[in-house]
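Box S2. Input/output pair 1.
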Amino acid sequence: MRPRRSRLFVLGLMKFLALVTVAGGVGVALGMVLTQVSDDKQPAGSVGAATAAPPATAAAPGATTPTTPATTTITTTPTATPDPLDQVRLSVLDARLFTDDTPSGAREQRARVTVRIRAENAGGESVTLARPMLRVGNVRIPTDPDADALPGAQFDPLQPAVPQTVTLRFSLAGEATPKVVRDRRARVLIAGRSLAMRVKVRAPTG
């Protein structure tokens, strides 16, 4: 009985081993088939996972990144040219009024005013002065044109650092004469300025 059981046991073991062997071969074959099918479905050119993007290139040590220079707009203000008249220095040395005692002079209240004045050009170029005027209240009186021919009656063009002294002559009439006699004041308009001055009243002209 024992030999028979032993044979049956050996036969059963051999069948089991054969079955395991066959099952293993079938599994290997099945795995190969599945692998082939998977490779056929994969898109051409793709291998495994997606290829990662190349890393950014680092700047070399000590290298500087070029920058666009900023544009600066500079606005310049034109320099104003100085007025040559601002360089003229004026001084009133003397001012006098002489009344006219002739019948016509007394009737018309005529008088003559003389103003001795000094001017100096402190600039660097010649300056020509406009005809001066005498101001009495709201009345403006130009220099007497009949006196223009007299020496030193008008300013010549003022040269730099060359002072001039002249005697300006004005002919008054009407209300201007008694106003100056009463106030003993008047103004001379010259070189763009108005200079106040005290006027001395003198004896009538003969």
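Box S3. Input/output pair 2.
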Amino acid sequence: MDRGRKTKEKKTHRFEIPNLFYALIVFFCILVPILIFQREKLYKIKSLFKKKAWLAGFLSIILWSIFIITNDRGSSDKTAIRRYAATQHAIIAFLIAMFAYVDLTIAPFCTFWFVIYFLGDLD
């Protein structure tokens, strides 16, 4: 083996679909029955999606989060790690705000427990 030659390993960004899939399934399995049986909560969420300014902000959150998660996951760069962690925390904060908006108190505990269990520690 030639020690003078340094090989640079290319890190691949692997997006773990099964864990994300499980977390999303649990999230929707908790949220959908609540919205079906408590119509006033469903109407509150529908009213948000009818507001153009809110919808534009929501779409920008989704696009930004997808961009950061797919590009910064598994990176060893300190800035990328901070961006990735900040995005994860911001998504959790957004979900908390949405649960608060529709007056849910127990569902956030179950949802976040499963999301953190399947997606790993947020730090």
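Caption for Box S3: The chain has a mean pLDDT of 79. The longest helix spans residues 78-101.
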